[in-house]
Amino acid sequence: MKEFLMLIRGGQEKYNSVSPEGMQKHMEHWQQWMSNLALEDKLVGGQPLMNEGSTLTEGGKKVIDRPFAEGKELVGGYLLIKAGSLTQATKIAKDCPSFEYDCSVELREIAPMD
Amino acid sequence: MEPKDHIDSTINHLFRQESGKMVAVLIKIFGTENIELAEDVVQDALVSALETWKFRGIPDNPKAWLYRTARNKAIDIIRRKKHSKTIDFSDPERKLLTSEYTLANTMDNFWKEEHIQDDFLGMMYACCHPNISPENQITFILKSLCGFSTKEVARSFLTTEDTISKRLYRTKAYFRKHKIRPSIPYPEEIDTRTTAVLSAIYLIFNEGYNSTHDDQLIRKDLISQAMWLCKSLLDSKRTQLPEVYALMALMCFHTARVDSRITEEGALILLSDQDRSLWDTELIALGGNYLNQAAFGETLTTYHLEAAIAYQHCTALNYEGTNWKEILKYYDLLSNIDNDPIVSLNRCLILLELHGPEEALLAIEEIKDHKIIHTYYLYYAIMGEIHERLIQTGKAVEYYQQAMQLTQSKPEQQLLHNKIVRCLE
């Protein structure tokens, strides 16, 4: 089993305009999807992220009080999952509820550092 | 009622009714290794309720308010302890508590009404695990599931708070060590496991019903808690067993007579002298219903027979009108099920009523070789009674005196003392 990071990007515009009922329904989809992952022992962890943040560049000398990328590129959440291969991880990610909010999902395998 | 008193009594009622359920849910969330944590959250929620309601008044649905508060506090704790080793998050449902994507929904799922009742019953079965001693079982039930304070439990058992704390500690250590998971047992073992739960409930009941307490409030409290616990078993389909109905019926019949058993000064009144107009007819009728519902399946338990006996007493118009014949039949059946010397002794009392002292004496002769019987005050009390009826008052007094030495209960001693005085008149 390998571990993969799922980076979820974008979707803020749609999230900001959704009704409380719509949001509740959406969170129920997350519940179902993640619950299945947990039952299959494929879930390691993961969290949604706030829109605010700060970015350090130039060797840490320059600090900007916002995330590095914004809009469609803004990272809105992450998940760590277990899968046999990148193909399998990609297959798992296809059902991610974030697509309902026009997000993009990037999958990256955790790199072992020998 | 003053607003403050009103708040206090509402809180007290809620406390007793809901704290055990909240503890059960929180133990499911945090695991049996974190019982203290669960109890702390419930305490916190109750303190918040007291503080908030004092100023804003009691909300329309105080129970929902309490659950909501406990839920929110549980969320705070999960967030705080997410990365500590205190809580085992390896279980799939608990894993979902560690992500903000799923924390709130998972938490709400734990607090769904239909799960709460099961969790509560599951905790009852967990407490009554065969490897936990009966006294530790009932201590834990009263403290954690009935919302008693350590002090109240100590008063209930006429012991020190220190002893109670030790008992609680041992039970919690057992849960931790063996990773006991509270759950309602599977159908194939529900009968035997329920037997243990019922005997714990009956112990609590008897602690209230028997006369060792001077404090009427504690007695009533224990009685109502025992009945509440039994009722909660009857509220769930999986635990609606004949013996549960039978115990419920038995407790109704006993409780119906509780006010006529004791004078205001705490002295015992014998059945023959009780004012039957004080008996609670509604409770007797309710008990009758439960007893009817107990009559299914193949099970005939001691609770069925004890309830049938109590029913006969409850429905006799007066002492002379008691159907002793029928009662003797039940005692014979009881002796068949379980060879309990107390049952045999009580059977002798029925023989005394039905056939007179000679026959009662013959029957008691048969069981007098039971070693244990000679440590029971009841044996000597009955021997006294028999000899009094035989008009051998000298012997009767001797027996009554021996009985007096063997009981710790002041009302029992007083009653025996009165009999001695009667003999000597």
SS class of chain B: mainly alpha
H/E series of chain B = HHHHHHHHHHHHHHHHHHHH
The chain-level structural class of chain A is alpha+beta
The ordered string of helix (H) and strand (E) elements of chain A is: EHHEEEEHE
* Largest sheet composition of chain A: 4 strands, antiparallel
Residue fraction in strands of chain B: under 5%
What is the general shape of chain B? Answer: elongated
Biggest sheet strand order of chain A reads: 2-5-1-6
Q: Ranges of chain A with pLDDT <50 over ≥5 residues?
A: none
Work out the number of β strands of chain A. Answer: 6
Q: Return Rg of chain A in Å.
A: 16 Å
β content of chain A, as a range? 25-35%
Number of beta-strand segments of chain B: 0
Number of DSSP helices of chain B? 20
Figure out the total of helices of chain A. 3
What is the residue-averaged pLDDT of chain A? 95
What is the oligomer described by this structure?
Answer: heterodimer
**Biggest sheet of chain B, in brief?**
none
Query: CA-to-CA gap between the ends of chain B?
Result: 51 Å
Which protein chains make the most extensive interface, counting residues with beta carbons within 8 Å of the other chain's beta carbons? A-B, 16 and 12 residues
Overall description:
The complex is a heterodimer of chains A (114) and B (425). In chain A, a hairpin with a 4-residue loop joins strand 3 (55-57) and strand 4. The two termini of chain A are 17 Å apart. Chain A has helices spanning 12-17, 20-39, 86-93, and strands at 2-9, 43-48, 55-57, 62-64, 75-83, 104-109. Chain A is built from 3 helices and 6 strands. The mean pLDDT of chain A is 95. Chain A is an alpha+beta fold and 114 residues long. By secondary structure, chain B is mostly helical. Chain B has a domain at 1-111. Chain B contains 20 helices and no strands. Chain B has helices at 3-30, 35-56, 62-81, 92-95, 103-110, 113-127, 134-145, 150-156, 161-178, 187-209, 216-234, 242-256, 281-293, 302-315, 324-337, 341-355, 357-367, 377-389, 393-406, 410-424. In chain B, helix 7 crosses helix 10 and helix 19 (393-406) packs antiparallel against helix 20 (410-424). Chain B is elongated and about 85 Å long. The A-B interface holds A 27-28, 30-31, 34-35, 38-39, 41, 43, 45-48, 77, 79 and B 92-93, 95-96, 98-102, 104-106.
